[in-house]
């Protein structure tokens, strides 16, 4: 089997990661920062998980020069989830426009607005 350095990967999808990055990730999946737990075993509600997210946000903000007027969202679903989110957002915008229009026509009478 060829070594990682001998392989040139040109496939679609994720790019190959440098070997040191994979090795560091492998260590974290066995014993994350000497906690005795795998990174995959840490509660998503724990202080450790919150610190990981905060550190990641700070690093991305710095690396990509993201302005304070923007936020970073960590979401599941990949590309398919993002495409679905676009549709949900478009529907939400349409619903809000219809609600505002009904409110303007009905003078803020909430029961009538909801009935419409």
Your description of this structure?
With 116 residues, the chain is mostly helical. 54% of the residues lie in helices and 0% in strands. The chain has four helices and no strands. The chain is elongated and about 70 Å long. The mean pLDDT is 87.
**SS class:** mainly alpha
Helix content percent band: 40-55%
Annotation field: number of helices: 4
How far do the termini sit from each other? 67 Å
What global shape is seen? elongated
Overall number of strands: 0
Indicate the mean pLDDT: 87
Uncertain runs with pLDDT below 50, 5 residues or more?
A: none
Which value, in Å, is the CA radius of gyration?
Answer: 23 Å
Main sheet makeup = none
Q: From N to C, what is the helix and strand string?
A: HHHH
Beta content comes to: under 5%
């Amino acid at each position: 089997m060829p070594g990682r350095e001998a392989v040139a990967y040109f496939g679609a999808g994720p790019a190959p990661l440098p070997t040191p990055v994979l090795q560091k990730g492998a260590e974290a999946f066995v014993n994350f920062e000497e906690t005795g737990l795998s990174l995959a075993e840490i509660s998503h509600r724990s202080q450790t998980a919150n610190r990981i997210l905060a550190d990641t946000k700070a690093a991305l903000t710095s690396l990509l020069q993201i302005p304070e007027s923007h936020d970073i969202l960590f979401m599941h679903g990949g590309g398919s989830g993002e495409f679905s989110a676009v549709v949900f957002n478009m529907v939400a915008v349409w619903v809000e426009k219809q609600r505002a229009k009904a409110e303007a026509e009905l003078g803020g009478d909430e029961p009538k607005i909801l009935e419409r």
